Structure prediction request, 215 residues.
Amino acid sequence: MKTLGLRLALQVATLAVVFSTVGHAEDRERVTFSKQGLQAKIIYCKTCHGLSGEGYLGYFPMPRLAGQQSEYLENQLRAFIERRRTNPVMFNVVRVLSPSMITALAKHFMDLNAIPFGGAPRGAVAMGKTIYEEGLPEANVPACSACHGSEAKGQGQIPRLAGQLFPYTVEQLTSWKTARGRGPGNDTSAIMSPIAHNLTESQVRAVAAYVSYLK
Ligand code: HEC
Ligand code: HEC
Prediction:
């Protein structure tokens, strides 16, 4: 699929059209990449992240991107480039993307609506709902809903968790400190660090199962 993306990109390289992104006041400057170049990238992203951005279970869990907050998406794509967030697969994907392409891709995936991938164990969903809505005061874990929202849709830099793949959420919460916030100085990932640390493995699985079924 990589070669398909490259071939498409080459075919359209001479047809570059100029258009400006809409929606962000700070992005008023005109950006140059072809519509077809963007389409080819989107197709490439979807070979891993699913045809509707719903996520995919391959050798790694490929997270859902559909309906994700665009600010969060942009920040994570920059985090991979700057190695604040370490992932060899995504580093190679994003290091070639221009800032305006990142903005356009984030907008595209935010606007997608996909049904949840499903497949998480049902048994712990009720416990997950309690943790999500009330936190675990005895373990110093705040309610997830306080930041991620009562429907887990997220806001701005705070990600949507609704419909996210169960194994992906489990993996993020159990490897937070080794994969995220790796750069010098603080980034947004620092907020989640103590929360992830204070959850036990069964609590992580419960809350990950609960959010995975939310639409
Ligand atoms: C070869 C497979 C592959 C391709 C192609 C790919 N990704 Fe990914 N992507 C992954 C994997 C695996 C992860 C999980 C990384 C981790 O565990 O930290 C990921 C994570 C992400 C994340 C972080 C999501 C989150 O919830 O924090 C974003 C954003 C993302 N990818 C966007 C993209 C975009 C945009 C493209 C196309 C330009 C793309 N990906 C292409 C495999 C891929
Ligand atoms: C104080 C606000 C806050 C609270 C409370 C909070 N989060 Fe977060 N969460 C964030 C922020 C901000 C991020 C984005 C971090 C980044 O930029 O790397 C995040 C990221 C995440 C991610 C990564 C999502 C992805 O797509 O990779 C998961 C999973 C997550 N939170 C789960 C939870 C769970 C489960 C709880 C409750 C036990 C919780 N959060 C409570 C603010 C919060």
